[in-house]
Design goal:
single chain, alpha+beta, 8-stranded antiparallel barrel, two-stranded antiparallel sheet, 21% strand, globular, disordered N terminus
C-alpha cells in the first residue's frame, strides 16, 4: 500500500496538504482589529510659585488581541463557501496528487495519521466528510483503517463512547450513513441514518431510522433492528474488523428500547437473508462498514450488498440516557 505525503512550509508533521490550497482572500476576513483598550493616564504637577494650575498629560494606548489561531484555517471558494483545511487534509490523505512522492508505510501507521486528522476536525463539522468523500475514497478509508490492527494501542480505540464497552448507562446515539451502488429494491441505502442504543444489561442494538428522500418507501422496511456484536473479522474475506451489525430475521425479543421506537418486526428481503454490516473504527465519531448478504443457505455464496458505508456520528444529538 502506497501512502503519499505532501510537506508544508508551515509544518512538516501536522498539515500535509497546506500547499495544495491557496487562499484567494485573507485567511481571517471576519477578524477585525477591535476591542481597543484606551487607557488615560493623568500626570499631575504640584503647584509652583509661578503657577497655581495643574498640568495634565493624557496618553492613549491601543491594544489589539487577535490571534491567527482563534479560528481554524480555511479557504474561501469563489462562490463564497468556506472550505476548511482540516477536512481537506483527510481528502488529500486518502486521494493524494500523483506527483507526490510516496512514503514507505513501514515508517509510520497510516491509520494512526488518519485518526489524528479526523480528530483535528471539530465535532460539529465532521458531517462534512459525508459529502467530501466519494465512494472510492470511502473504500480507501476502509483499507487505511485496516492498518489500525498493526498497533495494539490503536486497535483498542473506539469511534463511539457507546461502543467502547466502558459505559454502564443506557445510551443512545444517531449516525448518518452514506454509500453507493445499493440494490434497486433498497435504493434508499445510498443515504440513511441509524440509531444505536445500549441497554442497562450491556447489550447493544440498533435500527435504521431514516431513508433520506425516500421516507415514504422506508416505512415498508422499518424498523430494521439489528444486534451489535464484537467480532474480529469479516466472515467472507477474513479481513479484520471491530464489530458487526447483524440483522437476522428482525424478530428480536427486546425487553426495552428508547421511547417512541416501534416494536421489532420481521425484516423484508434482502435483510431477512442474513445481512451483516462489518464495521471498522476510523476516527473519533467516524466509522466505515461493509454490508454483506451472507444467506440463510449454507451453500449460498456471500455477496456485498453495496459499496463501503461511511458512518459519521450526529453530534447535534449528544449521547443521552433513555
Amino acid at each position: 500500500m502506497s501512502v503519499f505525503y505532501c510537506p508544508s512550509s508551515s509544518s512538516l508533521h501536522l498539515q500535509p496538504n497546506r500547499q495544495l490550497y491557496t487562499l484567494t482572500k485573507p485567511p481571517y476576513p471576519h477578524l477585525q482589529p477591535s476591542n481597543h483598550l484606551k487607557l488615560s493616564r493623568r500626570l499631575c504637577v504640584p503647584n509652583t510659585i509661578n503657577s497655581i494650575h495643574k498640568k495634565k498629560t493624557t496618553t492613549t494606548v491601543c491594544s489589539v488581541h487577535v490571534s491567527p489561531w482563534d479560528d481554524k484555517p480555511y479557504q474561501v471558494l469563489p462562490g463564497g463557501e468556506i472550505s476548511y483545511y482540516d477536512e481537506r487534509d483527510v481528502v488529500s490523505f486518502l486521494d493524494p496528487p500523483k506527483q507526490l512522492i510516496p512514503i514507505d508505510p513501514s515508517t509510520y501507521n497510516p491509520a494512526a495519521y488518519l485518526w489524528k486528522k479526523i480528530d483535528d476536525i471539530p465535532e460539529e463539522r465532521r458531517h462534512r466528510l459525508l459529502t467530501l468523500l466519494n465512494p472510492r475514497l470511502i473504500t480507501r478509508a476502509w483499507e487505511v483503517a485496516g492498518t489500525r490492527y498493526d498497533s495494539s494501542k490503536l486497535a483498542k480505540k473506539s469511534s463511539s463512547r457507546l461502543l467502547d464497552g466502558k459505559s454502564d448507562a443506557k445510551l443512545l446515539e444517531f449516525w448518518h450513513c452514506r454509500t453507493n451502488g445499493g440494490p434497486l429494491a433498497v435504493a434508499w441505502i445510498n443515504y440513511f441514518k441509524t440509531a444505536l442504543f445500549c441497554c442497562i444489561d450491556g447489550q447493544t442494538f440498533g435500527r435504521v431510522i431514516d431513508a433520506s428522500v425516500f421516507r415514504g418507501s422506508s416505512r415498508a422496511f422499518a424498523p430494521l433492528y439489528f444486534t451489535v456484536r464484537e467480532v474480529n473479522e469479516v466472515m467472507s474475506t477474513e479481513e479484520p474488523c471491530d464489530m458487526a451489525y447483524e440483522f437476522g430475521d428482525g424478530l428480536l425479543d427486546l425487553q426495552e428500547y428508547p421511547q417512541g421506537f416501534p416494536k421489532p418486526g420481521k425484516h423484508p428481503s434482502p435483510f431477512n437473508d442474513a445481512v451483516v454490516i462489518y464495521v471498522r473504527n476510523v476516527g473519533p465519531g467516524v466509522m466505515v462498514g461493509q454490508a454483506w448478504q451472507e444467506g440463510e443457505d449454507l451453500n449460498q455464496v456471500p455477496k456485498k450488498l453495496c459499496s463501503e458505508i461511511l458512518m459519521v456520528k450526529d453530534y447535534a444529538h449528544l449521547d443521552t440516557s433513555w
